[in-house]
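PROTEIN SPECIFICATION:
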Amino acid sequence: MKKVFASVVLLSGLATQVNAMEAPAISFADLDINNNGALSVAEAGNLPNISEQWNSLDLNGDGQLSQGEFAGYQAPAPAAGNK
């Protein structure tokens, strides 16, 4: 239960980084909370537009993203006027 809570807290912090367009890009290693070499839906869930891209990114259909699959993720461009 402590790991789940820590994961939620960490993902909440990552969501703040993602929403602040000036923050540096979040790396695969930052998202791979359990260090198993793959991203679950929960681990990647706070990335903008990840749910819309998931099926096309998960090339082997195993329900998780490898580092190579994650490399295809396209973050949305900042809205015009946001710098």
Summary: Helices lie at 2-19, 28-31, 41-44, 50-57, 67-70. The first strand starts at residue 38 and ends at 39. The mean pLDDT is 80. The CA atoms of residues 21 and 35 lie 26 Å apart.
